[in-house]
Design goal:
- By secondary structure, the chain is of the alpha/beta class.
- It folds into 2 domains: 1-103 and 258-348, Isopropylmalate Dehydrogenase (3-Layer(aba) Sandwich), CATH 3.40.718.10; 118-252, 3-Layer(aba) Sandwich (Isopropylmalate Dehydrogenase), CATH 3.40.718.10.
- The protein contains 13 helices and 12 strands.
- The protein has helices at 14-32, 45-51, 57-65, 88-99, 112-115, 122-125, 160-175, 191-204, 217-226, 238-252, 290-302, 307-322, 336-347; strands at 2-10, 35-40, 68-73, 103-109, 129-135, 145-147, 152-154, 180-185, 211-216, 233-236, 261-263, 269-271.
- The strands form 2 sheets. Strands 2-1-3-12-11-4-5-10-8-9 form a 10-stranded mixed β-sheet, sandwiched between helices.
- Helix 1 crosses helix 11 (290-302), helix 7 packs across helix 8 and helix 9 packs parallel to helix 10 (238-252).
- The longest helix has 19 residues, at 14-32.
- The two termini are 20 Å apart.
- The structure holds 1,4-dihydronicotinamide adenine dinucleotide, 2-OXO-4-methylpentanoic acid and magnesium ion.
- 2-OXO-4-methylpentanoic acid is lined by residues 89, 92-93, 242, 274.
- Keywords: Amino-acid biosynthesis, Branched-chain amino acid biosynthesis, Cytoplasm, Leucine biosynthesis, Magnesium, Manganese, Metal-binding, NAD, Oxidoreductase.
Length: 348
């Protein structure tokens, strides 16, 4: 098949990990007789430096016209002055809104050898397989912001439509998995959460085969570490999902491992690792590329409908971890390029 894939390396370790994923996608294309065309564009701090804006019009247009978009990460200390007028993260939020990708899938799978590096006891990690569905285009990240010398505010707003559409996605994923859905909110305090919970109860009637439960976000943060194997699909709003999924990465052994797929009603999906630009390790050939390579596997699955190819890439990642070929975040001594070479070898 022919596919046009936009690559947004971004900032920090973004270019290192996207280069690794592109190599893997090229290998998959070669092995299976596909024609993937890659086009790189600017997003984030690198775009601010050259274009004065975090999401240039040329990037926006290229993403809208693509079959799929693969992103590294944006941001870093160079662009983090609190008084800065434009910020790299605005570019990423703008891209998510432009593509309308309201459902951010963040699968948390535990690979036994990598998870041995987790601070959690191995018996707690046995059988962990969670799919987070994080609402991605609403809530406090997108609400009105105010600032005076004395005070600041960020509005958290959700419409019923925004809540319904992401809940339906989550129920559908739960139907195809173990038929349990945990909806996470802060309904004891927040009005948006009360609307979220009310909507979840109403939508649940459409999915009688799925068991719905509610969990407050603060206790969820604790349960994720004490009883992680109890969860199947977890659906939550934007900010809670951002925080809980970085916490859940601890179950995997490193923030460098979990991938993500952001999907909406439109044709273009956005794929990115869940981590940020890791300024502390940039340019050292130390970044774990597996979260981005696994995001490329999700791209094959959800945007290109190439399930066998997605599975082949996931199996190559798994075999690399089986062999203990770890970057330093997993306690290893292998470089980004050596880990990528090991995945490529597994793909042969
Ligand atoms: N999607 C995106 O583009 C995101 C961007 N950011 C931005 O990234 C910048 C840094 O944020 P932080 O809070 O430091 O979060 P971070 O996720 O960049 O890094 C947190 C820690 O995890 C490590 N880490 C992250 N990814 C890794 C990988 N692939 N391999 C090995 N180690 C890895 C880093 O070295 C660091 O010690 C900020 O400007 C932030 O706004 C943060 C999260 C998401
Ligand atoms: C806007 C991003 C920096 C938010 C984030 O941390 C994420 O999506 O994981
Ligand atoms: Mg995050």
């Amino acid at each position: 098949m022919k596919a046009n894939i936009v690559i947004l390396p971004g900032d920090g370790i973004g270019p290192e990990v996207t280069a690794a994923a592109v190599e893997c996608l090229r290998a998959v294309a070669k092995n299976h007789g596909h024609d993937f065309q890659f086009a790189e564009h600017l997003l984030g701090g690198c775009a601010i430096d050259t274009e004065g804006t975090a999401l240039p019009e040329s990037t926006r247009a290229a993403c809208l016209a693509a079959d799929a978009v693969l992103l590294g990460a944006v941001g870093g200390p160079k662009w983090s002055d609190p008084k800065a007028k434009v910020r790299p993260e605005q570019g990423l939020l703008g891209l998510r809104a432009t593509l309308g990708v309201f459902a951010n899938l963040r699968p948390i799978k535990v690979h036994a050898r990598a998870a041995a590096l987790s601070p959690l006891k191995p018996e707690r990690l046995a059988g962990v397989d969670i799919l987070f569905v994080r609402e991605l285009t609403g809530g406090v990240y997108f609400g009105e912001k105010t600032r005076t010398p004395e005070a600041a505010s960020d509005l958290c707003r959700y419409s019923v439509i925004e809540i319904e559409r992401v809940l339906r996605r989550a129920f559908e994923f739960a139907q195809a998995r173990r038929r349990k859905l945990t909806s996470v909110d802060k309904a004891n305090v927040m009005e948006t959460s009360r609307l979220w919970r009310e909507t979840a109860v109403r939508i649940a009637a459409e999915y009688p085969d799925v068991k719905l439960e509610h969990q407050l976000v603060d206790s969820m943060a604790m349960l994720l570490l004490t009883r992680p194997a109890d969860y199947d699909v977890i659906v939550t709003e934007n900010l809670f999902g951002d925080i809980l999924t970085d916490e859940a990465a601890v179950l995997c052994g490193s923030l460098g491992l979990p991938p993500s797929a952001s999907l909406g009603a439109g044709k273009v999906g956005l794929y990115e690792p869940i981590h940020g630009s890791a300024p502390d390790i940039v340019g050292q050939n130390k970044a774990n590329p597996l979260g981005t390579i696994a995001s490329a596997a999700l791209l094959l699955r959800y945007s290109l409908n190439l399930e066998a190819e997605a599975q082949a890439l996931e199996a190559a990642i798994s075999a690399t971890l089986d062999a203990g070929i770890f970057t330093p975040d997993l306690g290893g001594t292998y470089s980004t390029q050596q880990v990528t070479a090991a995945v490529l070898e597994q793909l042969q």
